[in-house]
């Protein structure tokens, strides 16, 4: 479509809808709207619009304005849109900030400011007599709700969920309110009687995720029109207030999960005949489940109940067969209780049932054949019971199944081939049973299978190559919206398999301890969240565990095509032959376990290309030859290669000597430890010398360059005059040719930019334009002719070689776009000069802002620091996990974290170390391997860079944000550094390490700061393989921000780049102390 700035608008136009068109202009660029003098309705929703400076024109007759779901940020847009006649305004899903005043908008009826960045007191509404709909949710608003909204007598809908309100639950204007949502704030105390004044009109009330106590006031019995009541995730205790609840005869949804309610379920629950959803999960209810709950007859609730959640309580006894009377049930979850007996066959009559979840009980007997009649069934989760017999053949009729989980039972027989007919099946877990026979090749027909766990059975025969024929294809009809937790075993002998994926909705995280009573093993909690529909970006398989069986034959080479596989465990079988070279094609592999087999031959060199590999176990095989010395292999411990009689090299004994796999290994291990310590000291001294020589070289080069800046523009002879010195290293290129060289660009606005434009914009690269210097060159601020501002990095001189490498690297880096990376806009080669053009970052580097806040004019409170930490982690995670080829930063530090106009973190200089190395600039090795204070310990022994090295450096940046200190500062640390100082103080009074300014801001921050310190410490583990990946770091941040655990509804939003929930399965969040199973 033509540019909107050139469009014309008829004066008779009253309504304009441009929604969902991917428009990316600024509102200033849409000046044609100024001619729409009679425009009354404007819909620009679901585009990519920005705001910028307020336009000089205004739409004075606008009554309906929908600007939701754009990229609008900063203040100003609200006041620009407001006028006395506006009736509807929606800015939902943007990043708008600032204070707002609606007192002049007397006609306003509908206002939606949800999901923005408002962090101020409530807006001023004035009389607000017309306001009917108000949604301020998902911001950080503070203030007095009662006083602000008291004049709004016409208000029907009020949503202030997910803000920062505190104190008692506020009084609200009565008379019209029907929908009230106060969830996910910090309200405390009892539910006030004043809320009962709303009973005559109230339809929905949500008070969940606060800190409320006490009881439901008896006056709420008058809420006979109330249809939905949610008081989940509070501090309520005692018995259910049935005397009040039974009077709410219109109640359709009752949610009291995550409280402390106790006692037996009262029979009077059956009086709530309109109920469609009953959620009593994660309380302390006990006794049996009342048979009358779906007892039938006029008093029963069987005709309407669709969702019944009783998980994570202390229920005992049998599952009532009368539950089948609730004929409209869609979801039934009885997991995490102490139920006994068998699964009632009568439940097979629930033709609408989609979720049948009863894991972790004490059920026995066979799985009823009658379940074959559940034609709508999607999730069958029966793990951790004592079920026996075969998998019922009738389940082949349940064609909508996408999660079958039968692990940790005593099931037997063969795995039925008909499972391959379940085209929607995404997760199949049959581990820890007694299944025998072969793995059915038909499982390869499951076009949606992403998770296959068959470990610890008695399976025999070869690994079928057909299992991998869906590799690389896109999984469809996958699980979405399910809450899960992944527990990862600690590698002990007692714990079989890689780990366990568990459906965890409605279950508090502390209850994981109860799993330990069923299968003795030590494990590490790994939290995920909700499964999102991001498997569209993945192939069909991401997890494969067939360990602890009796499989034989060789590893099929077809397995190498499983590009998206994250975890592969074939350990503890009788697999023989060589390790296929094709395994090196599995570029996303995180965990590889081939231990305890009969594999022979050498470790393929191709495995060194698995840059994301965090764990490997090749022990107890018949492998020979030298362990590869590149990639991640030098970061793995010796135990992962032991008991291979012909294997040698680091970390085992050197080749040609007595191998370290025999009974004398302990002496050699001690000797190597001493040698390693001495080597570390020596390498540390050598590294210091490298740093000194590097600084000398850089100083000499800098001096040379400055001496050259005498007669810069004389080299061009074009008559242009510039006031400052410039570099003349392009002098062997003709003047006219040099000045006319175009910029190779990745952004449309720069396509006509030439080298002469860059000269002009920087005043000949004058020192006045210089805004930074680093190991790779100087950075200049440049204002282009169109008024836009960019940053130009002028690389240090190269020898003239490496042109091809430079161009290749630029083309790779230029295509990388992410909201937390500084984008490369273009580059230019002129003679020996290499110029890179970046987007300009308004607030400069984190180093400058954090360590000199007065000069920067910015106060970095904890909210901003946390935002920066998460943004930097997200950017680094994108480089490590979403770029192909994956990019190792090599020099992650606070000066390479830049801050844009919204103080959003942008990682810079990614790819620079590899670029300069490829161009052979004679930079010191230390320059290419990081900056002192940020360098991981393994770099002192080997200058091979890895993603885990970046993780360590990120941990240092996070420490800077928490402590306010630089990584190296002799005044603070003497001969030590920040990492050593923190570890030392952690043994004393740990709170002393935090920045005093943060503690002054809010003394209650200490617990949150400790949680973030825990993340930093995990990143700073001396052992690279123990460090998390950056995706795991992101998951840890999400877990902290979830507040009340994995079931909290206040978790931070998923990144639009799609970090998959199940991409986090390998992460290892260490608990203190770690849980152990007895």
From TrEMBL:
Q: Where does ATP bind?
A: 794
Q: Any idea where this protein resides?
A: Cell membrane
Q: List the transmembrane segments.
A: 677-700
A Gene Ontology biological process noted in the UniProt record is: detection of brassinosteroid stimulus
| Membrane topology designation | Single-pass type I membrane protein
Pfam families, per the entry: Island, LRR_1, LRR_8, Pkinase
User: Which keywords does this Swiss-Prot/TrEMBL entry list?
Assistant: ATP-binding, Cell membrane, Glycoprotein, Kinase, Leucine-rich repeat, Lipid-binding, Membrane, Nucleotide-binding, Receptor, Repeat, Serine/threonine-protein kinase, Signal, Steroid-binding, Transferase, Transmembrane, Transmembrane helix
Q: Which reaction does it catalyse?
A: L-seryl-[protein] + ATP = O-phospho-L-seryl-[protein] + ADP + H(+); L-threonyl-[protein] + ATP = O-phospho-L-threonyl-[protein] + ADP + H(+)
Broad class of the protein's primary localization:
membrane
SUPFAM superfamilies recorded? L domain-like, Protein kinase-like (PK-like)
Give the Protein kinase domain ranges.
765-1040
Q: Which GO terms describe its molecular function?
A: ATP binding; protein serine/threonine kinase activity; steroid binding
Its Gene Ontology cellular component terms are:
plasma membrane
Q: Name the EC number(s).
A: 2.7.11.1
Domain of life from the UniProt record: Eukaryota
Q: Which family does it belong to?
A: Belongs to the RLP family.
Name this polypeptide is given: non-specific serine/threonine protein kinase
Provenance organism: Glycine max (Soybean)
